[in-house]
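chain below, 480 aa
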Amino acid sequence: MQKNCARVILLGICVALFGCGQNTGITLNATPGQCPNGPPNAPYCMGIKIINSGGGTGGQQWITSTNFPISNFSLSINGATNILSPATSTTTDPNNCAGTNVAPGSSCTFYLKISNEAYSTLSTEDINVTLSYNVKNQLFGPGETQSTSFTVYEVTNLYAISQNGYINIVNSIGSTLNNTSYYAESNDILYSSAVDTNSYGFLYLGGGLGIYQVGGESGTESTSTSISPSSFSGVTNNLFTQASNLYASPLGSNSPTIWNFSLSNQTWGANATYQLGNTSLVNNANTISPSGVIYLASANQVFSCGVTTTGGTSTSCATEGPSTAAQGSITSIAFPNSGATPYTGLYIGTGNGLYAESGSLGTTSNNNTWAQVNQGSLSTPVPPINIIATYNGTLFAGDTQGNIWQIESSSATSASVVATLPGAITAIGVDSVANVMYIVSNNTLYGWVIGSSNAPTSTGVTFSSPIIGLNIASQLVSSI
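prediction:
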């Protein structure tokens, strides 16, 4: 497919990092997106090339040359604490730079890699690197120890995915809020998104024609076409991650399947992981229980995938709870906690409100019921629930009137309004590091400190197309 893309990695260009202080002909080149034995264009990775820029042919001229072999490299890092490097992980030094003798004109590359999400979308973290090494500038002596230092950066982005194929990136450099957008997929309509915060930091998009992996300096997909498995067909309306796996399911009434993509190995499973019955899945209606069971929904039925009623594993998906025809069509589902008698912890949002499952997980539909959550003093009918998000065991739900509802895990069927925005809530994302909820209302992005009595604040960022997902992930950049 022809792509019309700007840059997803706003700042990640390859630059030469010249050492501070004394060094003998050494240059360091930083290239964001390079991984040790990994995929190209990965936001979590950065390659650092050590170049002994002396050159010279025919061997070292000890009397007149100012360039000498360098060796015995050691690294120290301060600043961001979630960075893997040769100082902490041998996997980031696959070329054994630490034990290599780099002759004039030669080079060696090691890597930096984000190990986990640790910072808020409102911060840019310095990564201060000091590289020490030995310069063999004495004919018979041990040589001289020298060092060079440089700084690169970790930026945490909020990705707002528009249905029309745009990706909007919101982050903060110092005290400045940045917002940019680019066309990620010009020939498709997007329905779902997910982000890899386990392995490489890629953003994944699900559309009418396939699944796209986004990352890299240029903002293009890491593959030029859909990465869907060959037997996968239909609109990709559910994408979600669990540990080191991406799960994808298509829209369709002809036995939809759930496929598994290994984020660490970058490969699809040979066959579909789970099979559903003759149904059609709701866009972005998925959740995972504390025990790791996957839940999806059709208009009037929740499905659990991966367990049987006897507690074993299965490659099929079973119905969970009774039909919701009486409660209204399901729009979203969530699993904020393990539940307390008689509630299972599973919630659904429907056209008529919010409901909690009562009974036991994994039982037949005849044994469970859906209990409506009391939404305080609102007149009936209760405004429809658009979307559900969870944070630290607390459930939040947004409705079509702009209200954000909160349900504490200790009060399974009672909700209260904690914030109100100008229009229908169409997307919610939670920054669990900063304790901040990002909310889309009237195609405008708002931020709200969870638990605060203050009203949500507009970021000033607006969108030209409906937002189908909010995702948060970091990247390594070489300059700001």
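Residues 164-474 form a domain with the Methylamine Dehydrogenase; Chain H fold (CATH 2.130.10.10). The chain has no helices and 35 strands.
thats it, cya
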